[in-house]
């Protein structure tokens, strides 16, 4: 136990140095899904290893079949131990032309109301968020020379690319990494005033499908109608994925998807989620999914099927009357409760094959999978964390569901038997995965202060 | 009237020079649909003007709102006058990686059987074909100092891009360009031994559709299901274009599409078209279009709807869980008999708008249109040409239908009141519009000889 007021004061007086370190980190082009940036990912891992060493962690970037994984330990203090997880990789930046500036030349902008935002790829997801925890540790070390509890840090570089390295790494290093609980900072506030702990996360199943028709591109004037057009074949398959009521039409897809428990339904209704504001913020107004489901259900507790990308034929300037040889699509499913990603993948592939003409061929490529997960909020650490967040933000922290998928949760649970506390300071308008991603300086600053309080609370 | 044997002999002894000129022409990157190549198109027009001048034509490249149009006249001879039409522009070359060599560095390859092919973009469509006519004129001038009949040449640069310049140009220069009949060399042989005159051509209606959903790319984990996904909206529209029987489902689309006249149906049946060989040549086996229609009907006398290109969301390496803001598709319709492209366009746009959610937007871009056309083969010039081709190839030339659309035919008919004889020497395996386009040296050589015979026949 140690007095945290000087630590909080240190955070306030040294926020500019913390911001400077984050801006350095944001300049590293750690796009994990594109092999062209493998060197940048390695450089980013090295950056973190050095940074953790600089505050007394025993840290290094470990080799994996994919991008390196950074591991750091400072277990000099006794007590309740934590493993903090974050990811240093970022999403691709296209369409580049929609960025107001270079995504890897971060800038601090000042709003008309005087508040500041940090703009750049990864500012929120996840470099800005993970650094809130690292800076909290730095402040403790600077003020008291030690941390209040044993802390390990695990930073991966394949979160955005459904990478396969982490599960193997966790299994191979279970004894080293095991802690009393996991901490992750990769989620959002409930709203700009209300902090949140995410207690449910959907799973993921990513698939890429390639349809091949003719063995070359054909002139549609000569072969039109007679030759199978992969664009038509693919469009039919993609259209069939959802029925007229917005339900996903793959047989057995909803197996293991129960209705929401009444208690949770009531709690969510009490949040008075404003669906029209949620959609209005992105220029829409009509919930597009399953009829009869609330928007909050759709994004928290219902499974989804989204075409993340599709393409076939001539997409350049002008026009080309071609029947393409190939067409392809990237499709992802968000899974809930007990849906099994492997069962879903199998059912999807059967659904597609059924719709491919006998003289065309189809290939599939797997892009990551993870089961949905729920945490037991009865564990004392959850309530301690909730109180610490409530103190920092001056508003009751909420237990919420989560739309995104963070496969690591499942891996930590299955490989290390650990529950995870998901507390993050992102905001709905952070535009993560989109052009002009940002992170509020307030999220960064109060996020650091929040972890100072959480680390202290967990030591009591 | 003049003895053609020395002219044919001249063609044989000077074929290498003719080939050299064609290779020069093929090096010019005259891709009309991509503005980046406008300079190359202008250079190509100048090349033709100089070449025509070199054989005594009064020729020049004329400015248009788009790419230049080359016009040349040699009307020193009296008699039955012809206007030869060709196009010097070519299709884009992507996917470039599928070419065995630079598409604009043409090569002459020798097959195992000793026959030669000219490989490069435009080798067949239409530079190689149009040069067969120009070289025939060159031979006449070299041997007899004059042509047997009055000849005008019209070479446009927007045939592959549905360009709008030609109709205006024809209307503005009708008196100058009018001739007794039009000649076009932009079609195929019936088979490698049998020459053909195309007497029916389908029309064209090209459309590009853009769907916009959210005002930015979204994270599918946060907005999945709830936010309209333009990929899903577009896939549904594209799938709906054809019903389960392969019929095009746009209301009124088949207005003005009669059944084939029995006489023509019998003649086509007599051709013993080998549908499995036709599809087998491109790696397919099952006719994909309207149930109950022969493949020959599909490609000659039935209208089509093909998705030439579609795209939306992340199509790069790896995976990105995004809901894209936009998706788009390029769609072309081949029209027959009395279908009106403007009516089809209107019906298509209504069909699409009906399927766009109220909170999404749709935009359209027009890409060319032309009505289908049939020629009166009762005109003596048709039979004279058919006999000339029969003599050159030693096989009865056939009157055939045509799958492609050559809008100029309609323009020549409407603007100048001219019928057109479509005689070409391309082969089904020329891969026009595809990577590794080629033209048989035999097509080029005997094509030149064919025009020598046709020009002579038309002078008798």
Short summary of the structure?
Chains A, B: This is M20/M25/M40 family metallo-hydrolase. Chains A, B: It holds the Pfam family Peptidase_M20. Chain A is built from 15 helices and 19 strands.
Task: Name its key features.
homodimer; 460 residues; alpha+beta; Aminopeptidase; Alpha-Beta Plaits; 2 domains; eight-stranded mixed sheet; four-stranded antiparallel sheet; 19 strands; Cyt/Met_Dipeptidase (chains A, B); hydrolase (chains A, B)
Tell me about this structure.
The first copy, chain A, is built from 15 helices and 19 strands. By secondary structure, the first copy, chain A, is an alpha+beta fold. In chain A, the strands form five sheets. In chain A, strands 1-2-6-3-7-18-8-17 form an eight-stranded mixed sheet, sandwiched between helices. A four-stranded antiparallel sheet of chain A has the order 12-14-10-15. In chain A, a hairpin with a 5-residue loop joins β4 (107-110) and β5. In chain A, α2 (15-26) runs antiparallel to α4 (127-144) and α5 packs parallel to α14 (408-416). At the A-B interface, β10, β11, α7, α8 and α10 of A face β10, β11, α7, α8 and α10 of B. Chains A, B: Keywords: Hydrolase, Metal-binding, Protease. Chains A, B: Residues 201-359 form the Peptidase M20 dimerisation domain. Chains A, B: This is M20/M25/M40 family metallo-hydrolase.
